[in-house]
Amino acid sequence: MSQLVIFKNESGKLEGFGEKGRRAWLKFLKVVEGMAPGETLGFTYKLPRSPEHHRFFFLKLAGLFQRQEGFSDQGRLLDWLKVGAGHVDLVPGRDGVMVALPKSISWESLEEQEFIEFARAMNDFLWTPHAQAFLWPHLSEEQRYECIDHWHRSFER
Q1: CA atoms within 13 A on the CB side of 56
Q2: Into how many domains does the chain fold?
Q3: Each residue of 44-86: pLDDT tens digit?
Q4: Helices marked H in 37-140
Q5: Which of 9, 26, 45 lies at the terminal end of a domain, its last residue?
Q6: Are 118 and 146 in the same domain?
Q7: Are residues 32 and 55 in the same domain?
């Protein structure tokens, strides 16, 4: 399988990125133009992640980490949030019981829409009493809710 990265140039035309990409783009166009009526061509594509959304997500994560009391490591907090959001692979554990292993949210592993869906699921999880009780165990249910609400409102644009 070949990889092709394209971009829109200054004149508004699509072209391959870099010399290798330029050659691959021309080859792709040649194949498309040479197709007979009724002939099909399948391909996959990946929509790029938004750098702004990526930075905003990790800014929010850092803000939550500073406010919560359940974790001493931000990476562990993120893993817990992945599990809570259902962004996991289920595998049999030592005793055969299924265990949730957090999946990556790295730049390469998720395209933008998948990242958006993960962030939504994570936010939904944070609004649950279970999640709030773990992050702020000594607070009342109302105070926990206020903690999440304040955190959420502090990042509204």
Answers
A1: 13
A2: 2
A3: 877 778 889 999 999 999 999 999 999 999 999 999 999 999 9
A4: 51-67, 74-85, 112-126, 129-135
A5: 45
A6: yes
A7: no
Domain that holds residue 86: 51-154
* Predicted local confidence at residue 1, as pLDDT: 63
Residue 129 C-beta-side C-alpha neighbours within 13 Å: 3
User: Are the C-beta atoms of residues 25 and 31 closer than 8 Å to each other?
Assistant: no
* Same domain? 89 vs 139: yes
Q: Phi and psi of 102, rounded to 5°?
A: -60, 135
Tokens standing for residue 63? 């803000």
What is residue 49's predicted lDDT score, i.e. its pLDDT? 84
Pair of tokens at residue 133: 């009780």
- Dist. CA 135–CA 80, nearest whole Å: 11
Q: How long is the chain?
A: 157
CB contact at 8 A, 112 and 124: no
For residues 2 and 41, state if they share a domain. yes
What does each C-alpha distance from 67 to 43, 62, 130, 133 come to in angstroms? 45, 9, 17, 13
Say if residue 88 is in the same domain as residue 137.
Answer: yes
Residue 23, SS3 per DSSP: helix
Phi and psi angles of residue 90, each rounded to the nearest 5 degrees, phi first = -95, 125
Indicate if 40 and 56 belong to the same structural domain. no
